[in-house]
Amino acid sequence: MSDETTQVKNASGKKSSGGVFASIVAIVVVVLIALYAISSFTSLNILGLNPQATSDNWKAVFLSNGQVYFGKVENERTNPVVLKDIYYLQVTQPLQQVGEGQRPVTAQEPQLSLVKLGNELHGPEDQMRINKDHILFVEDLKGDSRVVEAINNYIASQETDS
Is 37 found in the same domain as 115? Predict the structure, then answer.
């Protein structure tokens, strides 16, 4: 009778071990949950939940010093956070020529331009490691945003120049 309590007969009348199957399923579920937790909350990324940024995965990274960088974040959970394919906004005031006795006109709006990192005088590489403590927040950019359109136009112009 003890054999009957641990084994269940299936439709064909053969005895199968339901307790062993349930134990195996429970172990597999626990292992999958553990792998998911490790991939989600550490930089190990065992299951590939945080793949490297794809070509349409542009982000805006807002820093505590007021600077905003646009690029591809490899993994937001690591410290430092690695940003690649970097662009930033540059504000320029239009030059004004003022004659003698004239006042400068201040009503002209500043011009915004998107600049690709790497062309500066000091020649930085197109990668930045940012201390996580200096990041205020990170935003995903829409594919139709003006910044993404400007980035795509820049990339297309570089491809035609090559």
Answer: no
